[in-house]
């Protein structure tokens, strides 16, 4: 497992956690949601392979949808 694999797995889990907390109305969930979106967008500007970028991009879209 590469560092990028770990990063993608972490981003996916963080996305699920942030969305779940936000939907439950947990105050920290909203902050986690915003922070996670920012982190994912910063990573997407990096040098990730196309498949990893697609997964991370999907995570970011899910988070943005949960925010709205």
Automatic annotation (TrEMBL):
Q: Which domain of life is it from?
A: Bacteria
Its name, as the record gives it, is: Uncharacterized protein
